[in-house]
Amino acid sequence: MKQKRKQTQWLLIFIGIVFITIMLVLPLATVLVYALRQGWNAFYGAINDDYTKMALSLTLKTTIVVVMINTLFGIFASWAVTKYRFRIKHILTTLIDIPFSISPIIAGLVFILVFGRIGWAYPFLEKFDISIVFATPGVHIVTIFVTFPFVFRELVPIMTAQGSDEESAAALMGAGWIRIFRKITFPHIKWGLLYGMILCTARALGEFGAVSVVSGHLRGKTVTLPLHVEILFNEFKITSAFAVSSILVIIAVIILIMRNIVEYRVKKEER
Amino acid sequence: MYVELRNINKKFGNFQAADNISFSIEKGSLIGLLGPSGSGKTTILRLIAGLEDPDSGDIFIDGKRVNDLEPSHRGIGFVFQNYALFRYMTVFDNIAFGLEVQKKDKAYIKKRVSELISLIGLGGLENRRPHQLSGGQKQRVAFARALAPNPALLLLDEPFAAIDAKVRKELRSWLRETINKVGITSIFVTHDQDEAVEVADKIIITNHGRIEQMGTPVDIYKNPTTPFAAKFIGESSTIENYYNLHGFSRDEGYDKAIIRPEFVSISKLGKEIYPHASEQGIVKEVFFRGNMLEVKISIADNEIIAYRSLEDEELVPGEKISVLIYRLYLYNEDSVRLIENEILTSRPEFSI
Ligand SMILES: Nc1ncnc2c1ncn2[C@@H]1O[C@H](COP(=O)(O)OP(=O)(O)OP(=O)(O)O)[C@@H](O)[C@H]1O
Ligand SMILES: [Mg+2]
Questions:
Q1: What is the pLDDT of residues B184-221, one digit of tens each?
Q2: Cα torsion at B310, B316, B318, B323 (round to 10°)?
Q3: Are A214 and A146 contacting, i.e. CB atoms less than 8 angstroms apart?
Q4: Interface touch B72/A183, C-beta < 8 Å
Q5: Looking at this predicted complex, what is its ipTM?
Q6: Of all atoms in ligand 1, which is nearest to the CA of residue B44?
Q7: Contact B98 A174 (CB under 8 A)
């Protein structure tokens, strides 16, 4: 009996390891292997390429903008939903989840339909000489769209658990909302907030579908790292494509480590 | 009148949480809001504090209408039902919070907080966080935090709810003394009648968002004006056919009666003093209540409770006994009437 249980246990563990190796470790290792196949110089050359640098800088810039905006939005929205009562609360919560259930391609198309040449906002934008589609603002906007539930989703359960009595108590003593946030709400949500921000960062860095639709693939202008990889790959510059990919993989690993550290802190805080 | 509510109404959706509430309380008094769970006690406190806005009606504090005044300008200290201590601050910072908001100078804050910490008897625990305190200690910190900015009115929402019975009793008298010492008008919520009776100068009984009765504990006990108040205060049982009992005749306006153990005296058969006014009953159960016996008796299809001294002769379940009922509260939908045993009152030696 005991023998049998041990067998099952080993079998399950074995299946898990094989699956992860085939699906995850092998591909990631391949990225690094292919990236370095033609030696360090080729690798360095691919990364040191001007377009790569521009793509990296656009990706980082986009990520910073997106994470900042979504963090603010996530805090405000979760605060509104958990600390106040209002009628359309459920509708709001549901709406905020839409990016999770909609395909990024569709998100991109939606923005083309709104801000693009055929979109209803186009005449207005043109009048003020603002370009959104096929320009960096478009890249920022779709990435914001795709990633905005992350921070919100992380914060809502934490804030719900805390309730609003502490805030009421502070408000009753005359504290303004800045003080209330700084002294009472923030210390409570900080790890959860950071966790949400990390998830948001990871997603923003790697976003492909929606960005691909609105970017127009203008090299050096609206091409992010993932798009850059695609372009290189389509041009059969396999080594360069893998070299650039490896940047994304390395960033992803760093984020993963950070995520685990923060996750640990969140768990500790909850105890 | 220090605090006055006039015709306050408050709905949550379709639910009437405060139904035309009016009452006023004097400066310096300690008022107990007593009522079953969900009867609107917390809602009343929150309305006074300004944490909820009434749909209609006026609230006055110290002669001023405060409906449109910010909660923080109403001069109110609030102790929340679950204390709501700031969990990321130390005991000291919790108590100092209100003073810091008011931008008092450091030296004053330090002095005031130390003063309060010694008032609540938690010297040495200044640097603890709320989760390092016991329930009773948290309660005291919440109390000190509410008192720190010198509010003119203190509102306490079930200040002892989360504390075990023994500590609760100690804290109760501690709170009474401390409030007297500080001399602050206070309203506290409870659903424990012993607590209300013991601590409050006056009790307000709430039910279904309405006020059933307001008065001193003794007044409410002796002259309940609504059936709910009569049943809620004190131990009581209901009697269906009160007119079948010796000494009580039917009053057409009322079909039921409430009886309390204090209205009943029991004796062994043959030892009764007023046989004509008495009734025969059967002992159902006898409970030991620490300092007396509680006897459950069945009488004319009803079950009533009587108290009996431990010194008296022992009773056993099943035994027939003589039951003398002095008085009853008759009640109908909306009124209560006290009636006395007619046979007793018509006897000259008893009516002295
Ligand atoms: N924010 C709210 N939204 C909807 N209904 C509410 C809200 N607050 C209170 N109520 C309802 O109003 C009624 C009165 O609530 P309240 O908190 O005043 O009761 P309470 O007398 O303090 O009860 P307890 O002794 O259980 O604390 C309850 O039925 C409650 O469900
Ligand atoms: Mg309550």
A1: 999 999 988 888 888 899 999 999 999 999 999 999 98
A2: -30
A3: no
A4: no
A5: 0.77
A6: 18
A7: yes
- What are the boundaries of each domain within chain B? 3-231, 235-350
B83: which DSSP letter?
B
CB of B37 sitting under 6 A from ligand 1: yes
- Residue B17 clears pLDDT 50, i.e. is over it: yes
Q: How confident is the model at residue B352 (pLDDT cuts 50, 70, 90)?
A: very low
B12 beta partners: B15
Domain B235-350 belongs to what topology?
OB fold (Dihydrolipoamide Acetyltransferase, E2P) (2.40.50)
Closest ligand 1 atom to residue B191 Cα is 25
- CA atoms of A39 and A119, how far apart (whole Å): 48
A227-237 residue pLDDT tens = 999 999 999 88
pTM: 0.78
* Cα–Cα distance for residue pair A89/A80, rounded to 1 Å: 9
Check pocket membership of B178 for ligand 1, CB cut-off 6 A: no
Q: Given phi > 0 = left and psi -120 to 50 = alpha, else beta, which region is B234?
A: left
User: Which ligand 1 atom is the nearest neighbour of the CA of B41?
Assistant: 21
- Report CB contact under 8 Å: A172, B78: yes
- Using the Cβ of B86 and the Cβ atoms of chain A, whether some distance falls under 8 Å is answered with yes
What would the DSSP string read from start to end of A34-94? HHTTTHHHHHHHHHT-HHHHHHHHHHHHHHHHHHHHHHHHHHHHHHHHHH---TTHHHHHH
Name the residue with the closest Cα to ligand 1, atom 28. B38
The encoded tokens of residue B182 equal 């500080």
Candidates A169, A184, A187; nearest CB to B78: A169
- B114-139 mean pLDDT: 91
3-state secondary structure of A159: helix
Residue B50 DSSP code: T
The CATH number of the structural domain formed by B3-231 is 3.40.50.300
pLDDT, tens digit, 9 for 90 and up, residues A54-88 = 999 999 999 999 999 999 999 999 999 988 888 88
Q: Which residue stretches of chain A are H helix?
A: 2-20, 26-35, 39-47, 50-83, 89-96, 98-101, 104-115, 122-127, 136-147, 149-162, 165-172, 177-180, 186-206, 209-215, 225-234, 238-270
Q: Where residue B349 falls among pLDDT bands split at 50, 70, 90?
A: low
